[in-house]
Amino acid sequence: MKVRPPRTWTTVLHCLLISGLIVEAIEPVSTSLLLGTGAAVLGKKLYHYFYETCDENWLNFNATGLKHDLSTKLYGQHVAAQVVLKAVTGFMNNENPKKPLVLSLHGWTGTGKNFVSQLIAENIYQKGMTSNFVHLFTATAHFPHEAHVDKYKTQLQEWVRGNVSICPRSMFIFDEMDKMHPGLIDSIKPYLDFYDNLNGVSYRKAIFIFLSNAGGEKIVEVALDFWKDGREREEIQLKDLETALSLSVFNNKNSGFWHTSLIDKNLVDYFVPFLPLEYKHVIQCGLAEMVSKGHAPDKEVVEAMARDLNYFPKEERVFSMQGCKVIPARLDFYV
Ligand SMILES: Nc1ncnc2c1ncn2[C@@H]1O[C@H](COP(=O)(O)OP(=O)(O)OP(=O)(O)O)[C@@H](O)[C@H]1O
Ligand SMILES: [Mg+2]
Fold first, then answer.
1. N or C: which end of the chain has fewer CB within 10 A?
2. Distance from the Cα of residue 150 to its chain's centroid
Protein backbone atom coordinates (compact mmCIF):
# COMPACT_ATOMS: atom_id res chain seq x y z
CA MET A 1 0.00 0.00 0.00
CA LYS A 2 1.27 3.33 -1.00
CA VAL A 3 1.46 5.77 1.72
CA ARG A 4 0.08 8.98 0.45
CA PRO A 5 1.06 12.02 2.19
CA PRO A 6 -1.82 13.46 4.07
CA ARG A 7 -3.76 16.21 2.36
CA THR A 8 -2.33 18.73 4.64
CA TRP A 9 1.21 17.79 3.55
CA THR A 10 0.38 18.33 -0.12
CA THR A 11 -1.13 21.64 0.73
CA VAL A 12 1.95 22.57 2.66
CA LEU A 13 4.20 21.41 -0.19
CA HIS A 14 2.03 23.29 -2.65
CA CYS A 15 2.22 26.38 -0.62
CA LEU A 16 5.97 26.07 -0.26
CA LEU A 17 6.34 25.55 -3.97
CA ILE A 18 4.14 28.49 -4.86
CA SER A 19 5.65 30.75 -2.25
CA GLY A 20 9.09 29.64 -3.41
CA LEU A 21 8.19 30.65 -6.93
CA ILE A 22 6.79 33.93 -5.73
CA VAL A 23 9.84 34.52 -3.60
CA GLU A 24 12.01 33.62 -6.55
CA ALA A 25 10.04 35.96 -8.75
CA ILE A 26 10.06 38.87 -6.31
CA GLU A 27 13.47 38.36 -4.74
CA PRO A 28 15.73 39.93 -7.37
CA VAL A 29 13.51 42.97 -7.65
CA SER A 30 13.00 43.46 -3.93
CA THR A 31 16.65 42.83 -3.19
CA SER A 32 17.79 45.37 -5.70
CA LEU A 33 15.06 47.73 -4.48
CA LEU A 34 16.23 47.25 -0.93
CA LEU A 35 19.84 47.57 -1.89
CA GLY A 36 19.06 50.61 -4.01
CA THR A 37 17.16 52.34 -1.22
CA GLY A 38 19.86 51.36 1.25
CA ALA A 39 22.56 52.75 -0.99
CA ALA A 40 20.60 55.96 -1.51
CA VAL A 41 20.11 56.41 2.25
CA LEU A 42 23.73 55.56 2.92
CA GLY A 43 24.84 57.82 0.08
CA LYS A 44 22.80 60.68 1.48
CA LYS A 45 24.21 60.02 4.95
CA LEU A 46 27.75 59.91 3.62
CA TYR A 47 27.13 63.05 1.60
CA HIS A 48 25.90 64.88 4.69
CA TYR A 49 28.76 63.38 6.65
CA PHE A 50 31.53 64.51 4.35
CA TYR A 51 30.09 67.48 2.52
CA GLU A 52 29.15 70.50 4.60
CA THR A 53 25.54 71.39 3.93
CA CYS A 54 23.54 74.39 5.09
CA ASP A 55 21.23 72.40 7.36
CA GLU A 56 20.98 70.95 10.86
CA ASN A 57 23.58 68.29 10.03
CA TRP A 58 26.28 70.96 10.09
CA LEU A 59 24.63 73.99 11.54
CA ASN A 60 23.07 73.97 14.97
CA PHE A 61 23.16 76.69 17.57
CA ASN A 62 24.36 75.46 20.94
CA ALA A 63 23.29 78.11 23.47
CA THR A 64 24.57 76.13 26.46
CA GLY A 65 27.89 75.58 24.71
CA LEU A 66 28.34 79.28 23.99
CA LYS A 67 27.48 80.19 27.58
CA HIS A 68 29.91 77.58 28.86
CA ASP A 69 32.71 78.70 26.52
CA LEU A 70 32.26 82.39 27.34
CA SER A 71 32.35 81.72 31.06
CA THR A 72 35.22 79.22 31.11
CA LYS A 73 37.50 80.04 28.15
CA LEU A 74 37.23 83.82 27.93
CA TYR A 75 39.06 85.65 30.74
CA GLY A 76 38.44 89.10 32.15
CA GLN A 77 35.64 90.08 29.77
CA HIS A 78 32.48 89.96 31.86
CA VAL A 79 30.81 92.78 29.89
CA ALA A 80 31.62 91.41 26.44
CA ALA A 81 30.61 87.88 27.49
CA GLN A 82 27.24 89.07 28.72
CA VAL A 83 26.44 91.20 25.67
CA VAL A 84 27.57 88.56 23.17
CA LEU A 85 25.60 85.78 24.85
CA LYS A 86 22.44 87.85 24.98
CA ALA A 87 22.78 89.11 21.41
CA VAL A 88 23.63 85.80 19.76
CA THR A 89 21.15 83.70 21.74
CA GLY A 90 18.30 86.16 21.14
CA PHE A 91 19.04 86.29 17.43
CA MET A 92 19.51 82.56 16.90
CA ASN A 93 16.34 81.68 18.80
CA ASN A 94 14.30 84.07 16.69
CA GLU A 95 12.80 82.14 13.80
CA ASN A 96 12.00 85.28 11.89
CA PRO A 97 14.53 88.06 12.55
CA LYS A 98 13.77 91.43 10.97
CA LYS A 99 17.39 92.13 10.08
CA PRO A 100 20.75 90.36 10.24
CA LEU A 101 22.67 90.44 13.51
CA VAL A 102 25.39 93.10 13.46
CA LEU A 103 27.94 93.15 16.28
CA SER A 104 30.83 95.57 16.60
CA LEU A 105 33.63 94.40 18.88
CA HIS A 106 36.01 97.06 20.23
CA GLY A 107 39.07 97.05 22.42
CA TRP A 108 42.77 96.97 23.08
CA THR A 109 44.97 94.50 21.22
CA GLY A 110 45.01 90.86 22.33
CA THR A 111 41.91 91.08 24.50
CA GLY A 112 39.88 88.38 22.75
CA LYS A 113 37.93 89.92 19.86
CA ASN A 114 38.93 87.31 17.28
CA PHE A 115 38.74 84.67 19.97
CA VAL A 116 35.10 85.53 20.76
CA SER A 117 34.21 85.44 17.05
CA GLN A 118 35.74 81.97 16.99
CA LEU A 119 33.69 80.86 20.02
CA ILE A 120 30.50 82.13 18.35
CA ALA A 121 31.37 80.28 15.12
CA GLU A 122 32.16 77.07 17.00
CA ASN A 123 28.78 77.10 18.69
CA ILE A 124 26.84 77.59 15.48
CA TYR A 125 28.80 75.72 12.81
CA GLN A 126 30.14 72.25 13.42
CA LYS A 127 33.29 73.17 11.55
CA GLY A 128 33.67 76.45 13.43
CA MET A 129 35.97 78.93 11.73
CA THR A 130 36.77 76.43 8.98
CA SER A 131 33.12 76.23 7.92
CA ASN A 132 32.37 77.21 4.34
CA PHE A 133 29.65 79.44 5.77
CA VAL A 134 32.04 81.53 7.88
CA HIS A 135 33.93 84.26 6.02
CA LEU A 136 36.77 86.26 7.54
CA PHE A 137 38.01 89.42 5.84
CA THR A 138 41.02 91.33 7.06
CA ALA A 139 41.15 94.90 5.75
CA THR A 140 44.91 95.09 5.16
CA ALA A 141 45.15 91.61 3.67
CA HIS A 142 42.03 91.45 1.51
CA PHE A 143 41.59 95.10 0.55
CA PRO A 144 45.12 96.57 0.67
CA HIS A 145 45.09 99.09 -2.19
CA GLU A 146 42.96 102.18 -2.04
CA ALA A 147 43.15 102.52 -5.81
CA HIS A 148 41.26 99.24 -6.21
CA VAL A 149 38.33 100.12 -3.99
CA ASP A 150 35.80 99.92 -6.80
CA LYS A 151 36.93 96.43 -7.73
CA TYR A 152 36.87 95.35 -4.07
CA LYS A 153 33.35 96.73 -3.70
CA THR A 154 31.99 94.62 -6.54
CA GLN A 155 33.86 91.53 -5.37
CA LEU A 156 32.71 91.94 -1.78
CA GLN A 157 29.07 92.48 -2.73
CA GLU A 158 29.15 89.47 -5.04
CA TRP A 159 30.76 87.37 -2.34
CA VAL A 160 28.21 88.31 0.31
CA ARG A 161 25.23 87.95 -2.04
CA GLY A 162 26.44 84.65 -3.51
CA ASN A 163 27.17 83.11 -0.15
CA VAL A 164 23.97 84.22 1.56
CA SER A 165 21.96 82.80 -1.34
CA ILE A 166 23.72 79.46 -0.82
CA CYS A 167 23.34 79.62 2.97
CA PRO A 168 21.16 82.27 4.63
CA ARG A 169 22.82 81.44 7.96
CA SER A 170 26.22 82.74 6.86
CA MET A 171 28.63 84.63 9.08
CA PHE A 172 30.91 87.44 7.89
CA ILE A 173 33.71 88.74 10.11
CA PHE A 174 35.44 91.97 9.16
CA ASP A 175 38.75 92.34 10.98
CA GLU A 176 40.61 95.68 11.24
CA MET A 177 37.35 97.47 10.54
CA ASP A 178 39.02 100.77 11.42
CA LYS A 179 41.35 100.26 8.45
CA MET A 180 38.58 99.53 5.96
CA HIS A 181 37.94 102.07 3.24
CA PRO A 182 34.66 103.96 3.98
CA GLY A 183 33.43 103.20 0.46
CA LEU A 184 33.82 99.51 1.10
CA ILE A 185 31.82 99.67 4.29
CA ASP A 186 29.17 101.65 2.44
CA SER A 187 28.93 98.87 -0.11
CA ILE A 188 27.81 96.28 2.44
CA LYS A 189 25.41 98.64 4.21
CA PRO A 190 22.27 97.51 2.34
CA TYR A 191 22.81 93.96 3.58
CA LEU A 192 22.76 95.07 7.21
CA ASP A 193 19.45 96.87 6.99
CA PHE A 194 15.80 95.95 7.51
CA TYR A 195 15.08 94.72 3.98
CA ASP A 196 12.76 91.83 3.28
CA ASN A 197 15.06 90.85 0.48
CA LEU A 198 17.42 92.44 -2.04
CA ASN A 199 17.15 91.09 -5.58
CA GLY A 200 15.57 87.92 -4.29
CA VAL A 201 18.07 87.28 -1.50
CA SER A 202 17.16 87.68 2.17
CA TYR A 203 20.00 88.63 4.52
CA ARG A 204 17.96 88.47 7.72
CA LYS A 205 19.51 85.28 9.04
CA ALA A 206 23.11 86.30 8.43
CA ILE A 207 25.57 87.48 11.10
CA PHE A 208 28.04 90.32 10.59
CA ILE A 209 30.83 90.90 13.10
CA PHE A 210 33.12 93.94 12.94
CA LEU A 211 36.38 93.95 14.88
CA SER A 212 38.47 97.00 15.64
CA ASN A 213 40.76 98.70 18.16
CA ALA A 214 38.66 101.86 17.86
CA GLY A 215 37.67 103.12 21.28
CA GLY A 216 40.25 100.86 22.93
CA GLU A 217 42.07 103.72 24.64
CA LYS A 218 38.89 105.14 26.12
CA ILE A 219 37.92 101.72 27.42
CA VAL A 220 41.37 101.54 29.04
CA GLU A 221 40.79 104.92 30.72
CA VAL A 222 37.56 103.71 32.26
CA ALA A 223 39.16 100.48 33.48
CA LEU A 224 42.10 102.42 34.90
CA ASP A 225 39.79 104.85 36.72
CA PHE A 226 38.04 101.92 38.37
CA TRP A 227 41.41 100.44 39.34
CA LYS A 228 42.65 103.76 40.78
CA ASP A 229 39.46 104.16 42.78
CA GLY A 230 40.04 100.71 44.23
CA ARG A 231 36.82 99.42 42.69
CA GLU A 232 36.39 95.87 41.44
CA ARG A 233 36.83 95.35 37.70
CA GLU A 234 33.63 93.28 37.74
CA GLU A 235 31.73 96.39 38.83
CA ILE A 236 32.32 97.93 35.40
CA GLN A 237 29.06 97.91 33.47
CA LEU A 238 28.19 98.31 29.85
CA LYS A 239 26.83 101.79 30.45
CA ASP A 240 30.19 102.94 31.92
CA LEU A 241 31.89 101.94 28.68
CA GLU A 242 29.20 103.01 26.23
CA THR A 243 29.81 106.67 26.98
CA ALA A 244 33.55 106.18 26.52
CA LEU A 245 32.98 104.36 23.26
CA SER A 246 30.62 106.93 21.85
CA LEU A 247 32.94 109.80 22.75
CA SER A 248 35.97 108.30 21.08
CA VAL A 249 34.51 106.23 18.29
CA PHE A 250 31.44 108.05 17.12
CA ASN A 251 33.13 111.43 17.06
CA ASN A 252 36.38 110.30 15.52
CA LYS A 253 36.39 111.61 11.99
CA ASN A 254 39.68 109.91 11.21
CA SER A 255 38.34 106.46 11.64
CA GLY A 256 37.00 105.04 8.36
CA PHE A 257 34.25 103.08 10.00
CA TRP A 258 32.51 106.14 11.33
CA HIS A 259 32.50 108.16 8.15
CA THR A 260 29.75 105.93 7.01
CA SER A 261 26.18 105.99 8.17
CA LEU A 262 26.38 102.60 9.87
CA ILE A 263 25.82 104.29 13.17
CA ASP A 264 23.47 107.04 12.03
CA LYS A 265 21.20 104.43 10.56
CA ASN A 266 21.45 102.21 13.64
CA LEU A 267 22.64 99.26 11.63
CA VAL A 268 24.89 98.01 14.42
CA ASP A 269 22.81 96.11 16.97
CA TYR A 270 25.42 95.85 19.71
CA PHE A 271 28.72 97.59 20.47
CA VAL A 272 30.77 95.16 22.50
CA PRO A 273 33.61 96.60 24.62
CA PHE A 274 36.67 94.50 25.50
CA LEU A 275 38.56 95.46 28.65
CA PRO A 276 42.37 95.54 28.78
CA LEU A 277 43.76 92.38 30.40
CA GLU A 278 45.63 92.30 33.71
CA TYR A 279 48.50 90.13 34.96
CA LYS A 280 46.10 87.57 36.44
CA HIS A 281 44.36 87.12 33.07
CA VAL A 282 47.72 86.64 31.38
CA ILE A 283 48.36 83.83 33.85
CA GLN A 284 44.99 82.27 33.00
CA CYS A 285 45.74 82.52 29.26
CA GLY A 286 49.19 81.02 29.83
CA LEU A 287 47.84 78.02 31.76
CA ALA A 288 45.19 77.39 29.10
CA GLU A 289 47.84 77.63 26.40
CA MET A 290 50.04 75.07 28.17
CA VAL A 291 47.13 72.64 28.32
CA SER A 292 46.28 73.20 24.66
CA LYS A 293 49.90 72.46 23.76
CA GLY A 294 49.68 69.16 25.62
CA HIS A 295 51.74 70.18 28.68
CA ALA A 296 50.70 69.86 32.29
CA PRO A 297 49.74 73.38 33.47
CA ASP A 298 52.66 74.81 35.46
CA LYS A 299 52.06 78.06 37.33
CA GLU A 300 55.76 78.76 37.86
CA VAL A 301 56.51 78.56 34.14
CA VAL A 302 53.56 80.80 33.28
CA GLU A 303 54.46 83.32 36.00
CA ALA A 304 58.02 83.56 34.69
CA MET A 305 56.66 84.31 31.24
CA ALA A 306 54.01 86.77 32.50
CA ARG A 307 56.58 88.73 34.54
CA ASP A 308 58.64 89.37 31.39
CA LEU A 309 55.76 90.89 29.43
CA ASN A 310 55.18 94.63 29.17
CA TYR A 311 52.50 96.35 31.21
CA PHE A 312 51.09 99.87 31.23
CA PRO A 313 50.88 102.56 32.57
CA LYS A 314 54.64 102.36 33.08
CA GLU A 315 54.53 103.11 36.80
CA GLU A 316 51.56 101.06 37.87
CA ARG A 317 51.98 98.15 35.41
CA VAL A 318 48.27 97.29 35.48
CA PHE A 319 47.41 96.14 31.98
CA SER A 320 49.20 93.84 29.59
CA MET A 321 50.47 95.76 26.58
CA GLN A 322 49.70 92.94 24.16
CA GLY A 323 46.91 91.34 26.11
CA CYS A 324 47.15 87.57 25.70
CA LYS A 325 48.25 87.79 22.09
CA VAL A 326 51.94 86.91 22.30
CA ILE A 327 51.53 84.08 24.78
CA PRO A 328 51.53 81.13 22.36
CA ALA A 329 54.89 82.28 20.94
CA ARG A 330 56.46 83.40 24.25
CA LEU A 331 55.53 80.35 26.25
CA ASP A 332 57.81 78.14 24.14
CA PHE A 333 60.86 79.87 25.67
CA TYR A 334 59.78 79.07 29.21
CA VAL A 335 58.45 75.51 28.96
N1 LIG B 1 40.14 87.51 27.10
C2 LIG B 1 40.75 86.40 26.68
N3 LIG B 1 40.51 85.20 27.25
C4 LIG B 1 41.13 84.09 26.84
N5 LIG B 1 42.06 84.07 25.87
C6 LIG B 1 42.33 85.23 25.25
C7 LIG B 1 41.71 86.44 25.63
N8 LIG B 1 42.19 87.43 24.85
C9 LIG B 1 43.06 86.86 24.03
N10 LIG B 1 43.17 85.54 24.26
C11 LIG B 1 44.08 84.60 23.59
O12 LIG B 1 44.98 85.35 22.79
C13 LIG B 1 44.81 85.07 21.42
C14 LIG B 1 44.84 86.37 20.64
O15 LIG B 1 43.67 87.14 20.95
P16 LIG B 1 42.73 87.79 19.84
O17 LIG B 1 43.29 87.48 18.51
O18 LIG B 1 41.33 87.35 20.10
O19 LIG B 1 42.93 89.31 20.17
P20 LIG B 1 42.24 90.58 19.49
O21 LIG B 1 41.40 91.24 20.53
O22 LIG B 1 41.56 90.17 18.24
O23 LIG B 1 43.51 91.49 19.21
P24 LIG B 1 43.85 92.54 18.00
O25 LIG B 1 43.09 93.79 18.31
O26 LIG B 1 45.30 92.73 18.09
O27 LIG B 1 43.41 91.89 16.74
C28 LIG B 1 43.48 84.33 21.33
O29 LIG B 1 43.48 83.39 20.29
C30 LIG B 1 43.36 83.66 22.66
O31 LIG B 1 44.07 82.45 22.65
MG1 LIG C 1 42.09 90.61 16.26
1. N
2. 28
CA–CA separation, 208 and 170 (whole Å): 9
By the CB criterion, residues less than 5 angstroms from ion ligand 2 are 113-114
Angle at 299 between CA 69 and CA 108, to 5 degrees: 50
Which H helix or E strand runs over 210? Answer: strand 207-212
Using the Cα atoms of residue 233, residue 235, residue 238 and residue 241 in order, give the sign of their dihedral. negative
The domain defined by 63-274 carries CATH number 3.30.450.40 = no
| CB-ligand 1 contact for 205 (6 Å cutoff) | no
CA–CA gap between residue 245 and residue 262 (Å, rounded):
15
pTM of the model: 0.87
CA–centroid distance, 135 to ligand 2, in Å, is 15
Confidence of residue 7 (pLDDT cuts 50, 70, 90): very low
pLDDT in tens, 275-292: 999 999 999 999 999 999
- Of ligand 1's listed atoms, the one at least distance from the Cα of 115 is 18
Helices (H), the chain: 7-50, 63-72, 78-93, 113-122, 139-142, 149-166, 182-192, 216-228, 238-245, 256-259, 279-292, 299-307, 327-334
